[in-house]
Structures are given as structure tokens and as C-alpha cells.
Amino acid sequence: MIRLDDISLFYPGHRPMILDSISWHIGSGEKWVLFGPNGSGKTKLLEIIAGYIYPSGGAVTRFGTGQGESDIRDLRRRIGYVSTPLKERFPSGETAADVI
């Protein structure tokens, strides 16, 4: 369903790399929890999976579709992604029902 192959993420002038050579496969019906210390890249990895940012290197396949092959908005509807930074993408006062 979701496949990350050798994903890396860096910002020019930023050391160390934020993500370095991450490979991960999430199969149909699997549920995962991603945890680690602050600043370890958890949110950035989830933002790559959901298509909010693009990796500096590597390949992302979502539901059999490679990057740029499908409308990312359609793919996001199939991904259950919840995080505190996600709430910043919606206007204050918008209800959960409106977001869904």
C-alpha cells in the first residue's frame, strides 16, 4: 500500500540530514505507530508519506502509484494520518466533521 525506498531528506545548509536512507513498507490493513525522541524526523516522514513534502532522494509509492502519477489529494483521502502539526493546516474554528 505504502512503500518508501531509500528516502532521504535534507535542507541545504542543515546538518545532519533529517532522514537518511529510510525504507519502509506498509501493507494492506496494517496499522503502525511511529514514535521516537523530539527532532528525530517522525513528522517529516509522515509528511512525505501523505505527500505534504517531497523527499530529497528515494522513491515513494502510494497504493501502487509513484510520485506525480496521480492526484495527491485523491491519495491523501486513503491515508489515515493524525498529528499535532496537521491541525495547523486548517482554519481555526473548523469542525472535525467539516475537515472529514
Number of helices: 3
Strand order of the largest sheet: 2-1-3-4
Extended strand count: 4
Note the run of SSEs as H and E: EEHEEHH
| Poorly predicted residue ranges | none
Which oligomeric form is depicted? single chain
| Biggest sheet character | 4 strands, antiparallel
Please estimate the helix content: 10-25%
Mean of residue pLDDT?
Answer: 83
Radius of gyration: 14 Å
Which overall shape is indicated by the principal axes computed on the Cα atoms?
A: globular
Distance between the termini: 21 Å
Beta-strand proportion: 15-25%
Structural class: alpha+beta
Describe this structure in words.
With 100 residues, this protein is α+β, with helices and mostly antiparallel strands. Helices cover 17% and strands 24% of the residues. The two termini are 21 Å apart. It has helices at residues 42-49, 72-76, 96-99, and strands at residues 2-9, 19-26, 57-62, 65-66. The protein is built from 3 helices and 4 strands. The longest helix is centred in the middle third of the chain and has 8 residues, at 42-49. A 4-stranded antiparallel beta sheet has the order 2-1-3-4, with helices on one face.
Can you give me a brief rundown of this structure?
The protein is of the alpha+beta class and 100 residues long.
What's the structural blueprint in terms of helices and strands?
Layout: E1 2-9, E2 19-26, H1 42-49, E3 57-62, E4 65-66, H2 72-76, H3 96-99
Antiparallel strand pairs: 1-2, 1-3, 3-4
